[in-house]
Amino acid sequence: MIKLYTIGCPACKVLEQKIEQFNIDVEKIEDEEIISSKGIMSVPVIELEDGTLLNFQTANQLLNEKGDKAFQEVK
Q: Which of the following CATH numbers is that of domain 2-69: 3.40.30.10, 3.50.50.60, 3.40.50.2000, 3.30.2350.10?
């Protein structure tokens, strides 16, 4: 399961919609204290199971290229 750090901004909504479209298992985190405690300075950010953080550009590109397999092989 991936984690999506979001505050509901337009970019956040784009990733949320794509994640829903591809039925990717996701935990949505909207608590700004948790977000800042992770050192995240801007959202949205995807956190992979191994702790890797992906910014909007990288996550969006992966979703566009690989769809529901976007986050399976990212290192």
A: 3.40.30.10
In angstroms, the CA 12 to CA 7 distance is: 7
Q: What residues are paired with 29 via a beta bridge?
A: 5
CB 68 within 8 A of CB 23: yes
Provide the mean pLDDT of the chain. Answer: 93
Q: What is the pTM of this model?
A: 0.91
pLDDT above 90 for 65: yes
